Amino acid sequence: MDKPKVVLGVTGGIAAYKACELLRQLTESGHDVRVVPTESALHFVGAATWSALSGHPVATEVWSDVHEVPHVRIGQTADLVVVAPATADILAKAAHGLADDLLTNTLLTARCPVVFAPAMHTEMWEHPATQENVATLRRRGAVVIEPAVGRLTGVDTGKGRFPDPVEIFELCRRTLARGMHGADLAGRHVVVSAGGTREPLDPVRFLGNRSSGKQGYALARTAAARGARVTLVAANTTGLPDPAGVEVVPVGTAVQLREAVIKAAAHADAVVMAAAVADFRPATYANGKIKKKDGEDPEPIALVRNPDILAEISGERPRPGQVIVGFAAETDDVLANGRTKLQRKGCDLLVVNEVGERKTFGSEENEAVVLSADGGETPVPYGPKEALADTVWDLVAERLD
Known about the structure:
Blueprint: E1 5-10, H1 19-28, E2 32-37, H2 47-54, H3 70-77, E3 80-86, H4 88-96, H5 102-109, E4 114-118, H6 122-126, H7 128-139, E5 143-144, E6 148-151, E7 157-161, H8 165-178, E8 189-195, E9 199-200, E10 206-207, H9 214-225, E11 229-235, E12 246-251, H10 254-265, E13 270-273, E14 280-282, E15 303-305, H11 309-316, E16 323-330, H12 334-345, E17 349-354, E18 365-372, E19 377-384, H13 385-400
Parallel strand pairs: 1-2, 1-3, 3-4, 4-5, 8-11, 8-13, 11-12, 13-16, 16-17
Antiparallel strand pairs: 6-7, 9-10, 14-15, 17-18, 18-19
Binding site for CTP: 279, 289, 307-310, 327, 341, 345
Domain Flavoprotein: 5-171
Catalytic activity: (R)-4'-phosphopantothenate + L-cysteine + CTP = N-[(R)-4-phosphopantothenoyl]-L-cysteine + CMP + diphosphate + H(+); N-[(R)-4-phosphopantothenoyl]-L-cysteine + H(+) = (R)-4'-phosphopantetheine + CO2
C-alpha cells in the first residue's frame, strides 16, 4: 500500500529544531514526509538535515525543479499538511492567501486536512491580528493548535510555547485518519474532565479511586484533532503528557473540580464529565497524620456528600444549546443503573461502562454503551479509548448541529 503523504512545513522560529522529532515520529510510523521549510527556517535547521531525515530533497522557492511544478504538485498530492512551528507570519499569509514561496503555494493548492502548530511570544499570539487570522483559518476548516504555556526564548514565560512533538504527532495521526471530515468541531469550545478526585483525610492519606484519566485525555486529544478549543480539567493525572493544543487545568478534590468545570462551562458548547468524582469526602481533616493506637480500633471516619457536578451543570445549562455528557462506571445491572442515572442527572448523553479489578481503569482500551436522553443506545465495542472518544464526539456534534 502507498504510504500516506505528509507535507511538513517548517517556519522561522527557534522551535524549528523540535520539528525534527515530529518528522521522526511521522517517518517511523510509516508516513512519506516531504519537508518544505521557509527560507527563515533554514537559519535554525539546515536543508541537509531535513533532506537526510525525510529522504526527499528540500527546497524553499518555487523555482527549483520547475519541470515538476512543485508549487502545485506537492499540495495536490498531500494527504495532510502540518506546519510546525507556525509563526505569526505564516498564519497571516495563509489567512490572506499570499503565496510568495514554496510553502505558501503548497498551502493554497492543498485539498487535504491542514494543521498549524503555532509557536511565538505571548504578545504576538495574543495580538488581535493573529487572533483574527487564527479565527479565519479555523472557520475555513484548518486545525490551529493552541500553543502551550511555558518557557519561551530568553527569560520569558507564557502562552506561545511549541507543544510536545509527540502530542502533535498524535493529533496529526487522528486528523489524517478522519480525512476531510476531521474539523467538524471547528469554532467550538468544549470542556472535558478527566482523572479521579482525591479527598484528603490527613496530610498523607486520601479517599480516591482507580481512574487513570486516559479516557478523558483521549476525549481531549480527539476533540482537538477535530478542531475544537479544548479545556481539560485534570484531577490527579500525573504522568500523562498534556495533549497538544489543549488547555489543562489541574485540580485535586471534587470541590476544586467543580469550581474549574463551572468556570470553563460558562463559555462552552459542550461539557464531557469523564472524571471519576468522589461521591463523599471526610467531614473533618486531620492536620497531623492519624496515628494508630495499640489495642484500640480506629475512630470511625464521618463522611459528607460532595456536590453533584453533572446534575448541577445539566440543570443550569449556562449556554443555550449546550450539550452535557456524563460517565457512569457500574459493576452490575449496567444498563438499568445507567438509565436511572441518566434520568436523575438530566444530561443529554451518558457513557455507561462496566468497571472492576481489571476492567477499564488504567487500561488503554474501553467498552461502553452511550445512552441518550431520547432513548437511544449506541454500543461501542471493546477497543482503543480514542474509538469511544470519537463516538462520543460524533453524537455531540450531531446535537450541536
